[in-house]
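Consider this pair:
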Amino acid sequence: MENIALIESFSEFKDDKLIDRVTLMAILEDVFRSALKKKYGEDDNFDIIVNPDKGDLEIWRNRIVVADGEVEDPNQEISLAQARKIEPDFEVGEDVSEEVKLMDLGRRSILALRQNLIAKIHEHDNTNIYKQFKELEGEIYTAEVHHIRHRAIILLDDEGNEIILPKDRQIPSDFFRKGENVRGIIESVELKGSKPQIIMSRTAPVFLEKLFEQEIPEVFDGLITVKKVVRIPGEKAKVAVDSYDDRIDPVGACVGMKGSRIHSIVRELGNENIDVINYTSNDQLFITRALSPAKIVSIKLDEETKRAEVILKPEEVSKAIGRGGHNIRLAGQLTGYEIDVFRDGGEEDVELTEFSDEIEDWVIAEFAKIGLDTAKSILEQDVNDLVRRTDLEEETVLQVIQVLRKEFE
């Protein structure tokens, strides 16, 4: 019974670790063999019998009976006199099996056994966690905020597994409190020593792709395919979608009536502006769609260098570039082309405000006072007349004219 009692004391934490009895017994045998090897020098002459149903474990040492005074290896051999204390009819040359009680190993060995057992179970536990989360890489996962640090948020899932959400994997507008649930994708799982390190991301393009799968039934069912996702997290994203069923409008299905379907995704991503675009293998058409909402006059492609020259009407240029250059940058990433934007040099005029990066606002305002608010309206005037009609120096007027003429060269 003492073996059973000790094993039960070793396995008190079995339920907490969700480890099954059979696995525990296999680990126990491994741990006890290590202890036997340490105490006796080897363990190959020991039988360890495990009964997982009863939670029992027996250790038997097998030795050969030798004549008294001829024992050379006490672990492998036993003297006739000692053997007959076990059974009085033993003879030289016979095998003796003797049960080893755990208490015989000594108190220090039992403490070491316990520590070794705990370490082995943690190792087993960590291996299972690593395998579990390795299979979840690239999938959406939800966990609760446990601790907020400067460079990362530490999350815990329902099983108490620790997940790290680094600062650079958070959307800039993210703000979480302790106890809140956080959604992201499992980006990577690595073993640091024997402990798995699980990294979550909310900025990866695949997070947006998986949100489409979760929120849009046609994507989940495979009727609509997400071909590519590019993002500037928290700012803007472009998602190319396609359907092999001509009866389905992939963009309409993803956006929903008045944006109803995509609204929850936008909210999850901190109001990230999401453009959903019909995918096409026609590069010119794809670039045209990717630069939406700008309307394009013409496109010239160089497929070898993957460069695209896009001609737009002057009033469409700012739409193509977008705030902070986000629209044109994402369009380039989505299509795989380096996109250069040019204003149409035809009969179209250009608003003077389009040159605000080169001409100061107060100078533009001076021209507007006399009704000149486009580039051509100024270029058609005499320099002296412009100086006379405005409060501008001749040098300033000449500088403005030089900037405007470059536009039409």
